[in-house]
Amino acid sequence: EDIDIEEIWVLNEGHCMREQVLNICQRRKSTKSFQHFEYNTGSVETLKRMVDQNNGATILPELALADMNDKQLDRVRYFKSPEPAREVSLVIQRNFLKRRMIEALKNEILDFIPKRLRTKKKKEIMEI
């Protein structure tokens, strides 16, 4: 079900997730003059609490849902395909000497991400 994107709450300016949310909303809105966001906060956790306590609406990364209770999860709505997605990259020099350390870091990150989120299939990577 659709949410009113003119009433959505976002993170403070300078946060990369804010820019991605604004990009999502801009693409969903036909007018270029769209800029109506009133509530701002500096962290995802604070944003979740504000929305929860004041019956607001926001867009969250799926991993931010992990600690929500059943009542909160009942209010969650998912995007229709193609789902917006964020991409994380690990960039190193070609002749980097500590490849095993980088491999271990990569594996730790991948172990944390649910398998169903590891694919780019039917997802639209959002620009920052």
Number of domains: 1
**Integer-rounded radius of gyration:** 17 Å
What is the chain-wise order of helices and strands? EHEHEHEHE
Would you tell me the structural class of the helices and strands?
Answer: alpha/beta
**Strand proportion:** 5-15%
Average pLDDT level? 77
Count of discrete alpha- or pi-helical segments spanning 4 or more residues: 4
Distance between the termini: 25 Å
Q: Helical percent range? A: 25-40%
CATH architecture: 3-Layer(aba) Sandwich
Largest sheet: 3 strands, parallel
Described by the principal axes of the CA atoms, the overall outline is globular
**Order of strands across the main sheet:** 2-1-3
Count of DSSP strands: 5
Low-confidence stretches: none
CATH C-level class: Alpha Beta
CATH topology heading: D-Maltodextrin-Binding Protein, domain 2
